[in-house]
């Protein structure tokens, strides 16, 4: 377990810290809690669900990587399955500031990558910025989503984002977390196949420029990331960011990456190639293989 997770545990109340320790210290801990684990934590800590989510924010924020701001934000995306997914902000020194990942995006992407069907609430330790409010408005549960903040009564996303601009304004009925299955021809290389699978599940209703990334870790494992587009375009989450969120939350350092593959649609209206390669260079000179695929 890394030092920042340990520090976060030590800053919990003794009752919660003791209850959390066995989960967080397990090798299998991947920055989420099942419904059963959430209720066991509630029992052990004596906290309500909302109080527990707020109390877990320092643990979520301990995953932050903030070389630019040193401002650590933690978020928890609460799934309809009952599972809670942690997330934190991630900044990239030497890359454009627009590449930053916000904590809310991290937690939401985490839940999406774990195939959670819908979110009921997002809990975060600072008020969500406009970009995150817009990102959340893409969700299939945007109309019902509750936002929990320390010291504030729970409010809906639409309390935070009145008169919202969203997918319907562009004539799109699809929403983020609706299952996607864009058919692409298979390839024999397993890492490329993993990136194709991520691209086929990516969400790009505005451009159809589906894309996915697979990052090989230490020769044995990989993480993947999917492109998540947004009606307002700029809050879209690129596939590399999606994969880097999963890398961080699964406890791997960037230095564990041994190979990176981007899959995108041939003749697409836009490309993730140069932005992804630039971040990988900023992170330490990792090269990016790009594979273009045709729809079946
Ligand atoms: N940040 C978030 O993670 N969520 C928000 O909604 C507010 C801002 C992060 C982004 C950046 O890493 C740092 O906080 C300073 O803005
Ligand atoms: Zn934000």
Automatic annotation (TrEMBL):
GO terms for molecular function: cytidine deaminase activity; identical protein binding; zinc ion binding. Pfam families: dCMP_cyt_deam_1, dCMP_cyt_deam_2. The active site is at 104 (proton donor). PROSITE patterns: CYT_DCMP_DEAMINASES_1, CYT_DCMP_DEAMINASES_2. One of its GO terms (cellular component) is cytosol. Its cofactor is Zn(2+). The keyword Calcium does not apply. SUPFAM superfamilies: Cytidine deaminase-like. GO terms for biological process: nucleobase-containing small molecule metabolic process; pyrimidine-containing compound metabolic process. Its EC number is 3.5.4.5. Substrate binds at residues 89-91. Keywords: Hydrolase, Metal-binding, Zinc. It comes from the Bacteria. Zn(2+) binds at residues 102, 129, 132. Binds 1 zinc ion. It catalyses: 2'-deoxycytidine + H2O + H(+) = 2'-deoxyuridine + NH4(+); cytidine + H2O + H(+) = uridine + NH4(+). Transmembrane segments: none annotated. Residues 48-168, 186-296 form the CMP/dCMP-type deaminase domain. This enzyme scavenges exogenous and endogenous cytidine and 2'-deoxycytidine for UMP synthesis. Belongs to the cytidine and deoxycytidylate deaminase family. Homodimer. This is Cytidine deaminase. The lineage of its organism: Bacteria, Pseudomonadati, Pseudomonadota, Gammaproteobacteria, Enterobacterales.
């Amino acid at each position: 377990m890394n030092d920042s997770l340990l520090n976060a545990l030590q800053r919990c109340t003794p009752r919660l810290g003791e209850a959390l320790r066995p989960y967080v210290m397990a090798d299998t801990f991947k920055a989420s809690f099942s419904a059963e684990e959430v209720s066991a934590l509630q029992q052990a800590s004596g906290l309500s669900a909302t109080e527990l989510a707020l109390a877990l924010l320092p643990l979520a924020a301990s995953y932050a990587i903030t070389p630019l701001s040193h401002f650590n934000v933690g978020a928890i995306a609460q799934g309809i399955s009952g599972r809670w997914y942690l997330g934190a902000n991630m900044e990239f020194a030497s890359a454009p500031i627009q590449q930053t990942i916000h904590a809310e995006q991290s937690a939401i992407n985490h839940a999406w990558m774990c195939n959670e069907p819908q979110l009921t609430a997002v809990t975060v330790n600072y008020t969500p910025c406009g970009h995150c409010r817009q990102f959340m408005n893409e969700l299939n549960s945007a109309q019902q989503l509750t936002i929990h903040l320390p010291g504030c009564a729970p409010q809906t996303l639409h309390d935070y984002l009145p008169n919202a601009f969203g997918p319907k304004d562009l004539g799109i009925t699809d929403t983020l977390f609706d299952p996607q299955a864009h058919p692409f021809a298979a390839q024999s290389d397993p890492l490329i196949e993993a990136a194709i699978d991520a691209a086929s599940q990516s969400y790009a209703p505005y451009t159809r420029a589906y894309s996915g990334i697979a990052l090989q870790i230490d020769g044995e494992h990989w993480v993947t990331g999917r492109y998540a587009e947004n009606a307002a375009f700029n809050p879209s989450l690129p596939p590399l960011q999606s994969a880097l969120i999963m890398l961080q939350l699964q406890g791997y350092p960037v230095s564990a990456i041994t190979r990176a593959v981007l899959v995108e649609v041939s003749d697409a209206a836009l490309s993730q190639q140069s932005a992804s390669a630039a971040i990988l260079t900023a992170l330490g000179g990792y090269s990016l293989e790009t594979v273009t695929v045709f729809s079946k």
